[in-house]
Amino acid sequence: MNGFAQGLFALLFPSDCRLCSAPLIDVSRLPVCHECLTSVQPIEGALCSLCGERLITGFAAPVHPASGICGLCRRAAPPYAKAVAYGSYDGSLRELIHLLKYERVRPAAKVLGRMLADVLANTQVVGNSELLVVPVPLHATKLRQRGFNQSELIAAAAVKLARSRRSDSQKLQLNTKVLRRRRATDSQIGLSSHQRRENLRGAFVISKREIVRGREILLVDDVFTTGTTVSECARVLLREGAARVWVATVARTLKADTRELSLTAATPELRMAAQA
Ligand SMILES: [Zn+2]
Ligand SMILES: [Zn+2]
What we know:
- 40% of the residues lie in helices and 14% in strands.
- By secondary structure, it is an alpha/beta fold.
- The chain has one domain: Rossmann fold (3-Layer(aba) Sandwich).
- The strands form two sheets. The chain has a five-stranded parallel sheet with strand order 1-7-6-2-3.
- α5 packs across α7.
- The longest helix has 16 residues.
- It starts with a helix and ends with a helix.
- The C terminus is likely disordered.
- The structure holds zinc ion (2 copies).
- The site of one zinc ion has 8 residues, from α2.
C-alpha cells in the first residue's frame, strides 16, 4: 500500500495503539494513543551547552557543571556549534521513531517534526540569519529499502511548522540534495569512537559547494547517539565552506537518568540519610 492508502485504511479501520495496544478512540492517521504521545517529554535539567549531554552534578560526577561543558567536549570540542535534542531516546519516543523507521508509519514524521520545531523554538539554537536545513542523508541502498529518509521527513515537517509559527524573524530553507552519502557504512554498534570515525570517513560528500559556502547550516537527524555521524557531516560541511553548523535531533541518548543517579550523586550526608 502506498502512504495515502495506508492513511485511508487507518482512518476507516482504527486499530489499537501501536505502542501500548490500548484501543484508539480518536480518528487519526497515526495509530498512537493520546497517553503515549503525551508521555513524551522534553529533556530537562543541566545539559552540556555544546553537545546537549546531561551534566551530572554532585559528589561522584567527574564534570564541572559550572563550565556548562561536559567532559567529552572539554577534551575534544565538537565541530558543530551546538547540538540540541527534544527528548531522551527511550520509552515512547524511541518507539515512535522505530514506528517511523522500521515499521514505516509515515504519519509519525509529523509528530516528530513538531518536537523538532519545538526544541528549535525553545532553545533559539541560532541567530537571525537564514538557515539552510540539511537532513543527514541515507545511502541509496538504504533509501530504496526503506522507501524514505526519516530525517528528511522529520526536517520537512519541522520546517513547515516553524514557518507557520514564526513571525518570520528566521528563514528556514530545506535542502535535501546538497549533502550525499556516497558510501554505505557498517553499523556503528560496538565500535570504539576512533573506529566509528574511521567507519564514516569519506562517507559524506557535498554535491554543490556554492550552496553551503558561507551559510549557517542546521543539520537534522532523528537520533543523536554518540554524535559521530553528525560530527562527520559537520566536518564535511565546514570543510566545504559552511560558516557554522548547528545540530538538531528529535531524540538523544543521555547518561543515566538523574533519578537513578540521585543516590550516587548525592552528598555523603544525603546518602547516609537515604540509607538510614
Ligand atoms: Zn498508547
Ligand atoms: Zn558535551
